Amino acid sequence: MSIFKFDEPVDLSKHMLATYQTLRVVLFVIALTFPLVLWLGGKVSTHRLGLQGSMSAYYHANKDSEREFAAREPGACKPEGTQDCVRLDSGRGVMRNWFVGVLFIISAMLVVYKGYRPAEDVALNFAGVFAVLVAIFPMAWDGPGLPLHGIFAFAFFIAIAYVCIFCASATLPLVKEEKRARYRRWYKLLGYLMVVSPVLASILTFVLNSRSSFFFFAETLGVYAFAAYWLVKTLEIRETEADRLAAIGRLQSPASTGPMDAIRELPVTKTKE
Question: What per-residue confidence (pLDDT) applies to 88?
């Protein structure tokens, strides 16, 4: 729809339906750029940060924290009584506001977005809540702390993985038969990647130093799987016009038969004209 066309009626249905497409595209763009914004933002800032050990570390990281961590390397601190290790400057990361802000934006969009199954709506709402909790409860920085940050991050990816594995296929009956298997494989693959990513990150935490960049890339794998899901879903919906069909009452979700429906693929069906 062009704001410069005054000589013809405006089809408001297309205008309103574009909201859902825009939500999916924006989620894709935000997730795709999130790791890059943190890395490049820290690098080009006056703090000149190097790549941090994790995306969550950008909540705390600044020019002083890198020096302070270096001072804590084994043997770097002098014997007790001559010089103490410096105290880490927690919660004052140069990219902290970006980290928290993006998580809040993603949370709001997931809660607002409505899927094609009630179970999908519930899972997306939970994912939105977990995203906020990841921001509210940052990772432990100076010494041990409660692992709430990691728990909520893991729960976020599990909620989205559930959507990919069990809910995303609901609209596949509308896709041409020769393309259904391909879409289904993509959704399953992306869902499994979102499970593997936090597991891999946890393993790396125990096996490697927590400030290793491998942890950052393991997190990024999950974030990019999240981004890819919204891209694939956008392409599928654009191909089938599922949003339009649902808006005019041509689609319906099957009635529930019990709790086990939560882990079944329940396809939508077309209603009669």
Answer: 56
Beta-bridge mates of residue 269:
252
pLDDT recorded at residue 83: 47
pLDDT of residue 247: 86
> Is 133 part of a structural domain of the chain?
yes
120 contacts 159 by C-beta, under 8 angstroms: no
Residues in CB range of 77: below 8 A, 6 or more apart: 71, 83, 84, 85
What are 135-139's contacts with CB under 8 Å, separation 24+?
Answer: 135/99, 135/100, 135/103, 135/104, 138/56, 138/59, 138/60, 138/91, 139/54, 139/56, 139/57, 139/59, 139/60
**In one letter, which amino acid is 238?**
R
CA dist., res. 71 & res. 89, Å (int): 13
Give me the number of domains the chain comprises. 1
Residue 114 lies in a domain: yes
Distance between start and end Cα atoms, the chain: 27
Domain boundaries, position 134: 18-72+91-241
Give the residue ranges of the chain where pLDDT is below 70. 1-7, 67-90, 142-146, 206, 208-212, 273
